[in-house]
Amino acid sequence: MDLPQTNAMTIDVEDWYNSSLDIFKDSDVPHGSKPHESVIKNTLVTLDLLSETNNFATFFVLGTVAEHYPDLVKEIAKRGHEIATHGYSHQLVYNMTPASFEEDLKISLDHLANAGSTDILGYRAPYWSITKKSLWALDSLKKFGMKYDSSIFPIKRGLYGIHDAKTYPNEIIEGMWEFPPATIRFPGLNLPIAGGGYLRLMPYWLISGAIKRSAAKYTRVFYFHPYELDPEDTKLQHKTRSMTTILYWLQQKMGRASNPEKLRRLLTEYKFQSFKHILSEMDLKG
Ligand SMILES: [Zn+2]
Q1: CA 161 to centroid of chain Cα atoms
Q2: CA neighbor of 129 nearest in space, from 160, 150, 84
Q3: pLDDT tier for residue 199 given thresholds of 50, 70 and 90
Q4: Using CA atoms in the order 263, 264, 265, 269, what is the torsion angle rounded to 10 degrees?
Q5: What DSSP character marks residue 202?
Q6: The Cα angle at residue 16 between residues 12 and 18, in degrees rounded to 5
Q7: How far is the CA of 43 from the centre of ligand 1 (A)?
Q8: Which domains can be identified in the chain, with CATH numbers?
Q9: What is the CA(3)–ligand 1 centre distance, in A?
Q10: What contacts 227, CB < 8 A, 6 or more positions away?
Q11: Helix or strand holding residue 146 (H, E)
């Protein structure tokens, strides 16, 4: 089968504080807490940006967002985007057992169903945490009817990554596709360009050049979080003296002010689609 070529835009729908609890070891806020309501405003801004630039995306909605803000899920779906799951409580997959992973996945699917989205095809792990330690999760995803995963970052970083994983869409287990986030090849390593902090901090020409070079070769997967469109949304909800927390917080603030314009430019100069659309194109080609 030919590799899909359409570029994919993906949005992980969560609030930044509650999705950073694995970094904030000094916070006593438990996983699965109610997300800050700023996720609503920022996701609506995201939807407007996609409409204005005539793009469609896959929204990996965190289960707690669907639980507390079901109307937001309905609005995303109403605007023609794909709803997929980011799990329920934003826990690192390799810290869970297969049983607790499946329970977390099931709860997320139940909340999405309550919000009107029943045909969920895809999953993205919190912090890209399907690594060599947690490849068992792919079988669980298949068991729950997922047709694709987009959780394996083909780099190696502290919390995540498989450095020698494929950098292009591939059938990772029978009947299930893996869509890795975009990287570019430098001698000896893959350099991430797909989104989040990488997109915020890298020069636009580097990202744009990489898309151009790979145009018509295979799908490039990009991502961002709704909170990255709001330069003000970086409030810590606990007092800290932890250097890890402070450094992460500072890194989150970096590049925020220029990020909305950078994303608008990317979405204007290139066309993006949801994974669901890309999978249907692949089916048509057989
Ligand atoms: Zn996340």
Answers
A1: 14
A2: 160
A3: confident
A4: 110
A5: S
A6: 100
A7: 14
A8: 7-285 (3.20.20.370)
A9: 27
A10: 14, 15, 16, 38, 39, 42, 233, 234
A11: none
pLDDT tens digits for 100-125? 999 999 999 999 999 999 999 999 99
Alpha-carbon distances, residue 228 vs 14, 122, 198 (angstroms): 11, 23, 12
> Cα of 89 to ligand 1 centre, how many Å?
10
* Number of residues that this document lists for the chain: 286
pLDDT in tens, 119-141: 999 999 999 999 999 999 999 99
Query: Could you tell me the distance, in angstroms and rounded to a whole number, from the CA of residue 1 to the centre of ligand 1?
Result: 31
User: What's the 3-state SS for 143-166?
Assistant: HCCCCEECCCCCCCCCCCCCCCCC
Does residue 173 surpass a pLDDT of 90? Answer: yes
Amino acid at the residue 225: H
Tokens of 29: 């806020």
Query: Ligand 1 centre from 122 Cα, in Å?
Result: 14
Ligand 1: distance of its center to the CA of 22 in Å? 11
Q: How are the residues of the chain apportioned to helix, strand and coil, as percentages rounded to the nearest 5? A: 40, 15, 45
- Do 160 and 129 meet the contact criterion of CB atoms below 8 Å apart? yes
Residue type, 226: P
Q: What does DSSP say about strands 148-149 and 176-178: parallel, antiparallel, or unpaired?
A: parallel
* C-alpha torsion angle, residues 183, 186, 188, 193 (rounded to 10): -20
In the reported structure, the alpha carbon of residue 29 is separated from the centroid of ligand 1 by a whole-number distance in angstroms of: 16
Does residue 283 sit in helix, strand or coil? Answer: helix
| Rounded Cα gap, residues 112 and 100, in angstroms | 18
Ligand 1 centroid distance, CA of 279 (Å): 23
Strand partners, 184: 191
Q: Say if residues 253 and 42 touch (Cβ distance below 8 Å).
A: no
